[in-house]
Amino acid sequence: MEIVEKLNKTLLNKGLKICSLDIGIYKQAALMYTQLENAVAVLSDMQENKSYVYSSETAEVLGLKFKDNPMEIQSIWEEEILKKIHPDDKLKKYIHELRFFKMIDSLKSTERSAYHVLSRIRMKDKNDQYTFVQHKMFYIYSPENEKLRFALCLYTVSIDQSSGMTPEFLIVNSIKGDVLIEDRLNFKNILSVRELEVLKYVGEGFTSKEIADFLSISINTVSRHRQNILEKLKVKNSVQAFNDNFC
Fold first, then answer.
1. pTM score
2. Which residues partner with 157 through β-bridges?
């Protein structure tokens, strides 16, 4: 997936050792969140390309099974969790996190701790049914080189499961209680449902032939949808359409 490769290139600081942050402190913080909020907590180390997953009874509700607690993963991506997220929400989650990184990386180091991601996403539970889950993400930067060192993600079952609820992706300032950036990934008033599907696959790096196979339509139909997207969004190519409107 193209967006994942972009995130890896942006986030990972493998080999960059100038950082005095004690990972033990952040492991303890992840454990405390797990216990106090009944969360599934994921602490990702961008320097070492590792993650530590801490599970609670919420993991059982979501049908997540980890042989160890914490579970160490040789990646910053917690695949067992990510594969349960609704495909549309997972793509938006990646894009939103890239947007968050770009925003917070542009701030002064003294301002960064004020912000975090707050999202409502759909995840499959132990019964293979989608349920709303609240996702929080915090970034921790090294004080020496000001590079991103840790990401802490928290997953808890949303208290509101109303049928009218929709996914939501926010960047908030927890000091002021302000929503800095709201979800702008909805173009239903501009693009058709099929055009949105095509644009999503374009952003994931699939060819027109692959998109045609996925959607059970002809390549000519895919090409027509891509042309309509360009005209409606007033861009030169479909990749630019994805980057301009999703990133």
1. 0.75
2. 133
